[in-house]
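Fold this complex.
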Amino acid sequence: MTISSFLRRASSYLHGHPACFKALVLVTLSSGSLVAYSDSQSETDRVSRDLNQKEQKKKKVVVLGTGWAGTSFLKDIEVSSYDVQVVSPRNYFAFTPLLPSVTCGTVEARSIVEPVRKIIKKRNGEIEFFEAECVKIDAANNKVLCHSNLDENLGGNGEFSLDYDYLVIAVGAQVNTFNTPGVKENCYFLKLVHVMQEVEDAQKIRASVIDCFEKAVLPGLSEEDRKTFLHFVIVGGGPTGVEFAAELHDFIQEDLINIYPMVKDLVRITLVQSGDHILNMFDERISSFAEQKFQRDGIEVSTGCRVLGVSDKSLSVKMKSGGEVYSIPHGLVVWSTGIGTRPVVRDFTEQVGQGNRRVLATNEWLRVKGSENVYALGDCATIDQRKIMEDILSIFKAADKDNSGTLTIDEFQDVVDDILVRYPQVELYLKSKHLMDVTDLLRDPEGNQRESVDIEGFKSALSLVDSQLKSLPATAQVAAQQGAYLSRCFNKRQQCQEHPEGPRRFTGSGHHRFRPFRYKHFGKFAPLGGEQAAAELPGDWISMGHSTQWLWYSVYASKQVSWRTRMLVVSDWTRRFIFGRDSSRI
Amino acid sequence: MTISSFLRRASSYLHGHPACFKALVLVTLSSGSLVAYSDSQSETDRVSRDLNQKEQKKKKVVVLGTGWAGTSFLKDIEVSSYDVQVVSPRNYFAFTPLLPSVTCGTVEARSIVEPVRKIIKKRNGEIEFFEAECVKIDAANNKVLCHSNLDENLGGNGEFSLDYDYLVIAVGAQVNTFNTPGVKENCYFLKLVHVMQEVEDAQKIRASVIDCFEKAVLPGLSEEDRKTFLHFVIVGGGPTGVEFAAELHDFIQEDLINIYPMVKDLVRITLVQSGDHILNMFDERISSFAEQKFQRDGIEVSTGCRVLGVSDKSLSVKMKSGGEVYSIPHGLVVWSTGIGTRPVVRDFTEQVGQGNRRVLATNEWLRVKGSENVYALGDCATIDQRKIMEDILSIFKAADKDNSGTLTIDEFQDVVDDILVRYPQVELYLKSKHLMDVTDLLRDPEGNQRESVDIEGFKSALSLVDSQLKSLPATAQVAAQQGAYLSRCFNKRQQCQEHPEGPRRFTGSGHHRFRPFRYKHFGKFAPLGGEQAAAELPGDWISMGHSTQWLWYSVYASKQVSWRTRMLVVSDWTRRFIFGRDSSRI
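Structure:
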């Protein structure tokens, strides 16, 4: 019996058992088929063709990236309905919100990473993973071209391509240096610069901080030199930059000062921020709390300050107000600002006619605009929320059932639910105006209830609603929710084809298959060092101080992706409490 | 009051308080004097000269290296008697016996390192540490020239020199490639190659093993390619190579196979050994136990096999017996054989007239031969034990108190203790001959007790003793004991000058100041994977199997240098038992 006939027999026998069948396919694709491979190349091809025919109903999904969005999609996708292949230059998922802790050794790099293969393994190994980078999306042919980043030794240049029926782009963003000269060469980063270096960069920052101290205590240096080595500059006053500054301050004050007492008075930390305040995306109470805390801690905050260039020994900055240009000597610069586009995404934006956009625009169902079968989520995408004023006539027409040219309260009530789902800005607008009920929108300018409105009245009632539109922040929370949302849509595709669950189409007939993506904000944290943190929690609740740090600990421990990382992170924190941070240059 | 006059006043005030005084000196050397530095360079120089005069009684000790020998010396040295400065390219001590565990992630790199500054901090911060490499020992001028390995940004090329009264060389050895072509470029190492990379190399091996698996599962490769990527070759069948092979086997079988099931039948591990057996410095029962275990595990052992060269894809080996030359394709080669000389040591051997030696020869008190004030210990040194036959006439003369030309048993008894201390080979010889008492040596060839012996009889009685001379192995145990021994000698120098504690000088008058170094062997382990280990314990006790692995765990946990690393190592082991090893490529 030849191998191919064995496989054919086995596959027909196993036809009714999808799990066993899939296992067989896997074995075939790996070791099984490899035996055949050495036997006869063409024979194997025929076998896989045969097998493919049996599987023709299963659509192929290719996922690019294993960050928050990609991983969250992979966790829930039903492999009984799809053939899923994942391409990512790193074979692990990193819990990025703890990266600033890694830079100072409060948490180990190992503790925040989880192998992708472990995550997809939960799905019985039926998702294929390739450690490679997607270098080109060929949308016309439904193909992605990939390049293994393990270039040495690899036959065939390490290039391969994958076909897809659906493509999920979740490659994230990279750092944006705004073409500032010298930044790439002389700065450290807390955001992807090169492929797969986020965690490595955090580790490098740690080693470099210790290097600065070791350099500063060498014999025969002038005080000026020592001061330069011990001047740490952070560019960017966002949550990551602020958290790193706070972590660094704690690392130095709690640990390094004790073992380098001879230079303790020479250390300086400066945070350079182009805006007027640090943490300016937070509530201003938090922003000023952070600024005051930093002032007490001796962390200098230079606001309104733009970086013109960075050399290996200094950086030159320009004050926005006066226009003066300074040169600041430094030992280490960490660049923590700006979100840039990955080359593969930039190339794809052009293919789908979104030429000069920084990120991919998708509709509310996360499908890339200008494409039928490509989805984008996380930091590389933004949702282009439909404006209600674009559809105002259709909405009016759909709601005005009796074609009377006026809309009664009852008629409006009929479509309100669909409107609220389709245009989330309506709810935000009601909230901002403290209105209790949607029908309150239809009151006349004096605030009296009206029986009905005509099209002009309807237009003016909703005219300000779109002002509430804002794009979602580039955070882990958004990416994770989008991944989970998209996998749910994929899993219910068949079911929702027949029984749509989305709102009615105002510009067409019937209903949308799915409800559009809706982001649920669970709040955000800004750790400020010294066991203090600030948080904006749902319901506009602001919390600051030591208790908030404990809330931070418990939230971050609970959000860990596996019990292993949870145990490791908690034991890292415990170790830090007992023994402090390690200062070995490793 | 100028700064210098303040310092002079303060120093005279503090004269009687060495600890306070030393603290002041430290402050002066770092921040204090730096203020003066920017004020006036020459002023500062004068101040330090003044201070130096006050301190002239304290001798300067410079220690090179922070491995087992250096660290163990630093732990115990009395800083009240010496000014100690340490120069090492790495600012941490690494628990090297656990390096093979780091290569597979059984133990984290962080868990086996302890900052040197923490270790010397216990001594009230009175030992200065410089992260730099000693590039040249200038024995004629009692100076060492150092180069900071943090070259970038450093004023004055990062070079500085230190004066010493005593120099302690404990820089260890580096790998020896025996000039085999391609080894440096294409192999990984478990022993220092470049400065300060031991631990980093172990981490790289781990990432590289995972790379091999990621490469092997990429699409579009031939089975041959996949097999090549998954062929792991270890060169060297010593304890380190064997332990690495065992760890790698466990890592693959217990962890990687589960997440890369498609290539599980393609993995191969080969151990290449030039000798006839692996672990040939162990008892042969252990050696054959290890070979049998490896055979059961599927680890191929190629004995009698010399490596001719290594390329990025294959290595060529020659069978010693038949002379055939093979080419073996590989995915990864770990080179774990040979001990080479560090350049700074090679240069110094020439200065002291030990031209073509591989390591520095010292006398039994660890002082380098041909030098008065330089000591060498650990892997860079070997003790040149004095042969008893060289001194046989002097011994006879010293023992023969009545100058009768014959030695009675009583006369011999008088010098026996001194002989046993001065010539440790005597004790080893007695043991090897199963003799109970030293005087048994003087029996006649028929085994009858003699009343006295003449010089010829004495010579022939001791003629075979020197055959028991052997040099100590290059292990952590030896290095650590030497460090502790030397610091004890340094601490008792003054006391032993007046009351020598060593044996009598046979070739001179009086006594040696100190007892010579005596190595105490506590046994050695060879972990063999699968929770099994072999051990040679004191008293020629051989132990093999699972219980020995548990002994290994407890010994290695107890030998940790700090409670922090102890906790970390034990929690790493626990984590591995519960969750397995991590396969993230980081």
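Residues 1-47 of chain B have pLDDT under 50 and may be disordered.
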